[in-house]
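can u do me a favor
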């Protein structure tokens, strides 16, 4: 649980009440607040004379001391720095790193059934608030709980840092770009993933390598990404460094990356296999390090199963799989479809998708590397009208233009796999205005201990 010194605290509501109206708090001001409920995105909501404050690190029912970050006219953002009185619902944190709560598990203090309830409510709230009458009448199915509440992530991204001259490798502290909490046994990662990270940190320490420091642009080590084939036991580690000569690691790092940009997309120097082998829904799949792969393997199978049910294929349909990544979703449908056409913007992922079709003897799947915005019209010309379109976009959802292209497909059924109900809702409204009806929505918990919400929706013409 959070514990820090509280400093000077403004009594709740005091300043605002003097004038009979709420007053905007000042940045760094510390306030005592009661958390009412959870906001979309996972922060707690508190109010001071009607003025809304979003508090990270706090759960409904907590009484906290929070430090204000940004303060705008309509609302402020704050971080809980001390919990004065925990919510009666709170359970003890299970994952911490040297006493700091795991930044990757901000909802771990909330019992799992309440996490599920909050996610279900947030899907309803997004669809009803944003969708209004346009989406009215859909059936909301109960949220699918996760198979594993801990150690479910098949991919973790760690950052290097420095604590008083010691190399640390872990996660950014909540809301901090300049502070890394060292990870030893992160309960979101498997034991194998934790072992590999610790091995790489030991190697780096022995080699005398230092963390890259953004402030003075000195040092070498930036990030480490470890991805795991949960079914095959394979691990793929990618080290992102500044441009530097570094000793060859004794551990089997699959890929070394030199990145100047600060992200993990720098040029690649390959030391080992660039691909990870995994099994999913009975398929053997190759995952390149540049390609997206669902982060929770066990739940991806359930998610794909629900998408398959919503697609309701009977053997002869033409299916478009837009935003197809390495092709997995479409490939799991191929057996029950006439043909599958996948579109994806990352060319390396399309190469993986083609390889994945070949490996599994799937001959009715075709893939195209293109931005969906541009690629849908040529696809329609080549393939003809689809019976079902599956879309699985990133969190930002579909642009209005992509939805217009989707409407031009005139598919009787659209299956929408969404990792953000607040972008699903406006997309569904635009589709509803073009004659589609939102029929069913099923939330799926892919990310326990976090506020992330996935859901599958089906729309019909
Ligand atoms: C949420 S992932 C889904 C991938 C795949 N359906 C799966 O289940 O693994 C979204 C994918 O959309 C791709 N993408 C992002 N923007 C795109 C665009 N404008 N056109 C086509 N693909 C895009 C990303 O590279 C990523 O592979």
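np, heres the sequence
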């Amino acid at each position: 649980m959070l514990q820090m010194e509280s400093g000077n605290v403004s009594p709740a509501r005091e300043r605002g009440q003097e004038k009979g109206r709420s007053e905007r708090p000042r940045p760094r001001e510390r306030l005592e607040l009661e958390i009412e409920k959870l906001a979309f995105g996972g922060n707690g909501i508190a109010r001071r004379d009607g003025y809304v404050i979003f508090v990270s690190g706090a759960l409904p029912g907590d009484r906290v001391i929070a430090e204000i970050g940004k303060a705008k006219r309509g609302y402020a953002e704050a971080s809980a720095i001390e919990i004065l009185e925990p919510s009666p619902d709170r359970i003890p944190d299970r994952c911490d790193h040297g006493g700091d709560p795991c930044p990757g598990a901000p909802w771990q203090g909330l019992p799992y059934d309440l996490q599920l309830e909050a996610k279900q409510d947030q899907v309803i709230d997004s669809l009803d608030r944003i969708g209004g009458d346009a989406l009215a009448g859909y059936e909301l199915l109960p949220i699918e709980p996760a198979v594993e509440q801990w150690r479910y992530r098949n991919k973790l991204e760690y950052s290097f840092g420095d604590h008083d001259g010691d190399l640390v490798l872990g996660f950014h502290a909540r809301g901090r770009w300049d502070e890394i909490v060292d990870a030893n046994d992160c309960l979101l990662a498997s034991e194998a993933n934790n072992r590999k990270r610790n091995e790489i940190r030991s190697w780096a320490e022995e080699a005398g390598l230092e963390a890259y420091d953004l402030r003075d642009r000195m040092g070498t080590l930036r990030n480490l990404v470890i991805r795991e084939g949960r079914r095959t036991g394979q691990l793929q580690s990618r080290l992102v460094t500044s441009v530097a000569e570094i000793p060859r690691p004794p551990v089997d790092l699959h890929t070394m990356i030199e990145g100047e940009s600060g992200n993990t997309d720098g040029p690649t120097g390959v030391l080992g296999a660039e691909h990870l082998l995994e099994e999913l829904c009975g398929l053997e799949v190759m995952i390149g390090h540049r390609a997206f792969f669902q982060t929770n393997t066990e739940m991806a199978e359930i998610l794909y199963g629900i998408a398959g049910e919503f697609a309701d294929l009977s053997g002869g349909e033409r299916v478009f799989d837009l935003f197809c990544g390495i092709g997995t979703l479409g490939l799991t449908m191929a057996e029950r479809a006439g043909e599958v056409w996948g579109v994806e913007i990352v060319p390396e992922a399309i190469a993986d998708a083609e390889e994945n079709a070949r490996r599994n003897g799937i001959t009715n799947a075709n893939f195209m590397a293109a931005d969906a915005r541009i690629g849908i019209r040529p696809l329609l010309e080549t393939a003809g009208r689809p019976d079902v379109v599956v879309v699985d976009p990133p969190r930002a959802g579909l642009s209005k233009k992509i939805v217009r292209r989707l409407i031009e497909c005139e598919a009787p059924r659209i299956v929408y796999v969404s990792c953000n109900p607040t972008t699903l809702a406006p997309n569904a409204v635009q589709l509803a205005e073009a004659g589609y009806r939102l029929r069913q929505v099923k939330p799926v918990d892919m990310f326990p201990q976090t506020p992330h919400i996935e859901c599958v929706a089906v729309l019909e013409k």
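Residues 292-294, 323-325, 328-329, 343-346, 349, 371-373, 392-394, 419 surround S-adenosylmethionine (CB under 6 Å). hope that helps!!
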